[in-house]
Amino acid sequence: MTPLPIDKFDYPLPEERIAKYPLPERDHSKLLVYNDGIITEDRFFNIGEYILQQALLVYNNTRVIPARMVFHKPTGAQIEIFCLEPQQPRDYQLALSATDTCIWKCMVGNLKKWKEGILTCTFRLPDSNTPCHLHAERLSTQGNTHMIRFAWDAMGLSFAEVLEQLGEIPIPPYLNRPSEESDKTTYQTVYSHIKGSVAAPTAGLHFTNELLNRLHQQGIETTELTLHVGAGTFQPVKTDDANLHVMHTEIIAVPLTTLRLLREHLDHIVAVGTTSMRTLESLYWLGLHVMHQHTITTENMHVSQFEPYEQADADLPDTNQVLTALIDVLEQLGQDTLHAETQIMIRPGYRFRLVKQLITNFHQPRSTLLLLVSAFVGDDWKAIYDYALRHDFRFLSYGDSSLLTRND
Q: In angstroms, rounded to a whole number, what is the distance separating the alpha carbons of residues 245 and 258?
């Protein structure tokens, strides 16, 4: 594969341009509109004027969990445990609904102070004075992550409820501030309801229920899918050649009803955020697996990092055929949701199969998200980011937004 120098995807981002807090009104953020090389700007509440006619707006319904917990050793040492993804049970909903024990892959802060032993945190439920205890035991280490077994003695309390009592919303590290009570609301989209992410799908933070209703009245349909956003989304590309960067794997779920709507709206699909984009584009490659094997298995429901670049386009079926194959197999199996994993890396040279427009914030320099934007609009990403910097746009998670139309 031709080397992809990451330094070509760098730009100066002054600290003062990083939005530390959201605007008081979500949909009053600035909106950069890019179409066919032309850049204009407006306010987000007017986005309906620029979205494709007969569009299908696809958003990620994942909800951020308070995944960061602080334990204190008897010595006074403070140990921070950041839950990344469940291991036992592997399913997010089963792990979060567990009522006595579960195992998660975690990052641990101040690890040198936790060489052995079990950490314990005591808490009280709002309606009870009875003390409850959460225990954390480190089982093994994998690179810079650790397998942690959690156990608690609050009868009938789910792990999700334990996190609500003890955990903090893990706002992005580049905000350089501790999380606050307001982040529990502002760092969630208004449509989030499937718990599992450790980072918000931030493109959706600009939507209000009123705006969604207005878009519906304009004839713009909406549908949802789920990708639980992992901490890997914040990982910068540290290799000189971006192709050597190892993409993180994320778990996705797409309802059968959404797949049918996607097939009906080909050429009019609008992804709300890069997580929706990664999920939507992964569907094509998952569908190819199904077309070849005529069934769904644990093994074929995974998209590898460079799979899209390993086959010649001339040998591949069109998107309608691939989506139909997915739909047919789900119907035959009596399943109402497609569950899969994706490690897809969308970089310059990628051919988009589903998404025509992308709603997204302004991303970090030298990041895989900036590679994705570059794949979508070509070298015009430089003009887009230069415009945003010169016209006082706010950057990153709590920053302003853009609506980009694909350059083919």
A: 31
